[in-house]
């Protein structure tokens, strides 16, 4: 069995994690096929300037389609709402912490976003994070930040930036949990769609691989992720629009909160909806419809027409 993956430290951790799980479940040999995606190749521009969803996925899926690989492992938040018809999302393993993390430079005493000094330089690669930071602290100098986790950490630890915001999941998976100054609540920074979860793809016609991958599936995580992805699908979200959605399961029901915002944080729409696990994807679509009736489409169109604010 061959797993296609990106070559970043986090992507390799994720692929090796899946590899080890498959070996423990009886697979005889599992190898990695490391590929470079368009998103990996373009490091000098903000993601919102490069293109829409799929920047870190297309080349990996092509390896499945042409037979070079049997399995693909992605960060769920990188996976577009629509995948090629020959492929399926075969397994969604149990999710890591989906929240965002604030990491503050060692020279500062700040312990949260509120206590950062005025005009503090905060790095992030995400329009979603940028918008929510500016809601809470419009005075902050939010700076576009690309590169792998280690590169970003060096920028704040070396004093080039006052703080950065990264996903808790990636930091914990790579052993950098101790670097986290504060974990941001979902109320102050609603996570990206699928954040903290892995997406494992294979060819729909490959029954043997599908059966092996099914053993990695975690129903609770899948219900939450499918609700979030339903929200994404209905809004046709991409990297140019600050979208966020986060679902949890309580009492056997899916509770989903969704957000559409402007990059400067001056306009935002937020709502919550719940329903049964059987209708998880439809919950996401219905929540999106609610925001559309409140003007979300005009906000999305405005974001795409004006481009990124502050360069990211």
Q: Topology of this protein?
A:
Blueprint: E1 2-6, H1 9-24, E2 31-35, H2 38-41, H3 47-50, H4 58-65, E3 71-75, E4 87-91, E5 100-104, E6 121-124, H5 127-136, E7 141-144, H6 149-157, E8 163-167, H7 168-173, E9 182-184, E10 198-203, H8 207-214, H9 219-235, E11 243-250, E12 253-261, E13 268-276, H10 280-293, H11 296-306
Parallel strand pairs: 1-2, 1-3, 6-7, 6-8
Antiparallel strand pairs: 3-10, 4-10, 5-8, 5-9, 11-12, 12-13
How is this structure best described in words?
- The structure is a single chain.
- With 312 residues, the protein is an alpha/beta fold.
- The chain folds into 3 domains: 114 residues, D-Maltodextrin-Binding Protein, domain 2 (3-Layer(aba) Sandwich); 85 residues, D-Maltodextrin-Binding Protein, domain 2; 94 residues, 2-Layer Sandwich (Double Stranded RNA Binding Domain).
- Helices cover 34% and strands 23% of the residues.
- The strands form 3 sheets. Strands 2-1-3-10-4 form a 5-stranded mixed beta sheet, sandwiched between helices. A 5-stranded mixed beta sheet has the order 7-6-8-5-9, with helices on both faces. Strands 11-12-13 form a 3-stranded antiparallel beta sheet.
- Strand 12 and strand 13 form a beta hairpin.
- The longest helix has 17 residues.
- The N and C termini lie far apart (38 Å).
- The relative contact order is 0.16.
- The C terminus is likely disordered.
Low-confidence residue ranges: 308-312
**Average of pLDDT:** 92
Please count the helical segments: 11
How much of the sequence lies in strands comes to 15-25%
- Compute the number of structural domains: 3
CATH topology of the largest domain: D-Maltodextrin-Binding Protein, domain 2
CATH C-level category of the largest domain: Alpha Beta
**What is the second-level CATH architecture of the largest domain?**
3-Layer(aba) Sandwich
> Span from first to last CA?
38 Å
Radius of gyration: 19 Å
How much helicity do the residues have? 25-40%
């Amino acid at each position: 069995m061959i797993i296609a993956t990106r070559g970043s430290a986090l992507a390799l951790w994720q692929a090796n994690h899946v590899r080890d799980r498959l070996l423990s479940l009886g697979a005889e040999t599992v190898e990695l096929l490391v590929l470079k995606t368009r998103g990996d190749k373009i490091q000098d521009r903000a993601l919102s300037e490069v293109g829409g969803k799929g920047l870190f996925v297309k080349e990996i899926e092509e390896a499945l389609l042409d037979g070079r690989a049997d399995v693909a492992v992605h960060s769920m938040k990188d996976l577009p709402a629509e995948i090629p018809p020959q492929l399926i999302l075969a397994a969604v393993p149990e999710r890591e912490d989906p929240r965002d993390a604030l990491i503050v430079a060692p020279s500062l005493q700040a312990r949260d976003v509120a206590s950062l000094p005025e005009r503090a330089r905060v790095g992030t690669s995400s329009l979603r994070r940028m918008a929510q930071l500016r809601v809470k602290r419009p005075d902050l100098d939010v700076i576009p930040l690309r590169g792998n986790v280690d590169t970003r950490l060096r920028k704040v630890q070396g004093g080039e930036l006052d703080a950065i915001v990264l996903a808790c999941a990636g930091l914990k998976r790579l052993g950098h949990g101790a670097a986290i100054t504060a974990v941001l609540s979902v109320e102050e920074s609603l996570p990206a769609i699928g954040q903290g979860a892995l997406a494992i793809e294979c060819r729909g016609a490959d029954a043997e691989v599908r059966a092996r991958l099914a053993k990695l599936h975690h129903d609770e995580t899948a219900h939450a992720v499918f609700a979030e992805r339903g929200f994404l699908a209905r809004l046709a979200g991409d990297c140019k629009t600050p979208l966020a959605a986060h679902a949890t399961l309580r009492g056997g029901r899916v509770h989903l909160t969704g957000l559409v915002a402007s990059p400067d944080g001056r306009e935002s729409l937020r709502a919550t909806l719940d329903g049964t696990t059987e209708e998880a994807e439809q919950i996401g679509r219905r929540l999106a419809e609610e925001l559309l009736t409140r003007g979300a489409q005009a906000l999305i169109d405005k974001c795409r027409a004006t481009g990124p604010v502050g360069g990211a």
